[in-house]
Amino acid sequence: MAKRRYRSAKINKIETSRLLEAIVGDRIVVGVDVAKEDLFASIMDERQHVHAIVRWKHPKQSQQWVDFVVALSGAEHRVEVVMEPSGVYGDGLRWALHQAGVPVFRVNPKRSHDAAEVYDGVPSLHDAKSAAIIAKLHLDGASEAWPIRSNHERKLAAAVRLLEVHKKQFRQNRNRLEGVVSRHWPELSRILDLDSVTLLELLIVFGGPGEVAKRPDEARTVMRQAGGRFLDEAKVDAVIDSASTAFGMAQLDEERRLVQQLAQEARRNQKAMKAQERRVETLTADAPVTQHMRPVVGKVTTAVLVAAVGDPTGYESAYAYSKALGLNLKEKSSGKQQGQLHITKRGPGVARLYLYLAVLRWIQSDVIARAWYDRKVKRQGGRLKSKAVIALMRKLVLALWHVAHGRQFDSTLLFDTRRLGLNDRLPKSTEAAM
Which entry of 158, 229, 386, 392 is 20 to 30 Å from 31 by CA? Predict the structure, then answer.
């Protein structure tokens, strides 16, 4: 194998005319190794010969680099830019290239990592080499088009990301609150849930059992106003009784203030989270595809799925959509050793989390899904219930691809109802509602 050289030149040192004279063929591939500041691009022709490796500073010289790429294209050459989805650092370049009419493609980072030693016989990987590998993988057909997402998808992505920020902050403050409350009033979390509005409002006002025991009537009023008609009066009595007999350390003033502040922050996060959930639900009504999916998995889950991997109608098959979500199967076997099948988990984890919760709701609300789940769990001896849920996730995702294309969701199309013994118990058309 011939030794490869990875000398790079600054963007302002490249002579475009001389470079074009040396390129054979009408296709030029520009492989970009994306980074926060120091970027490299490999200029490769159809014979997979690297004519130059260009480096520049982002964002200071990025417009100059875009102008250079545009100058490479013309009547005699068509230019294709390919890069890895490395966080958000390449989004500015993608946008500028899109505005300039230059097609952009992406390569899975795992592919370029695995190809490092195959490319030149050396397992090392650095910026200039990565740029060349990315270009080669594109010429080998291991890339896909990477268009700019629609405004609707971008809105959903931003809304879902903000929702996750509020949820994360709420979980963090709730967990902190659990620790300090358990030290001074361990009985409270056994009576009321830590994320209940009643508990949070009670702690915001009183901060601990001592103050509740001193002002029981006021505490009752606060809990009733917070819990409303859904609050069980027996729980109110239990909280008041536990305050005077709490098995915990006596609170100092600063410790009580800590509890009050944590409860206040958790409540603020909770309100922001609920408001953002309503915003996400509103945004799912803006496009036909989300309108089709909402009755199947819910408004928020629909938003998360579209934000995470895009419109299902943009995938050529249901399997491709499942693969994007990391739900395709992998196997590792050798010789007589037969490995088990597992999902790849290559897609965004947040999407699989919401799908998991959607399937749990599906099992509770759909007689066919429940029967299939029970049968599979029983066949496995009552173990591995999570695997049965994941199997249903795979079925649901394949169905969602068809639903996004306008087909009605029908559980009878996903399962053999005859084998489940349900034919006599089902109407002619069974539609699952989740």
Answer: 158
Tell me the backbone φ, ψ of residue 237, rounded to 5 degrees: -60, -40
The model's pTM is 0.83
Contact by Cβ (8 Å): 42, 131: yes
Whole-number Å distance between alpha carbons of 280 and 307: 11
For the CA atoms of the chain, what is the radius of gyration?
Answer: 29
Q: Please give the single-letter amino acid code of residue 104.
A: V
Average pLDDT of each block of 10 consecutive residues along the chain (434 residues)? 76 91 89 95 94 96 96 86 90 95 94 90 91 96 93 92 96 96 96 95 97 96 94 96 94 97 98 95 86 93 93 93 92 71 87 95 94 90 86 96 94 88 63 42
Q: Which residue's structure tokens are 């490869």?
A: 4
Q: Is the Cβ–Cβ distance between 45 and 51 less than 8 Å?
A: yes
- For residues 397 and 399, what is the distance between their CA atoms, to the nearest angstrom? 5
Note the residue count of the chain: 434
Tell me if 254 sits within 8 A of 180, measured CB to CB. Answer: no
Query: 59: cis peptide before it, omega within 30°?
Result: yes
196, 205, 207, 197: which is closest to 246 by C-alpha? 207
| Cα-to-chain-centroid distance, residue 179 | 29
The residue type of 257 is: R
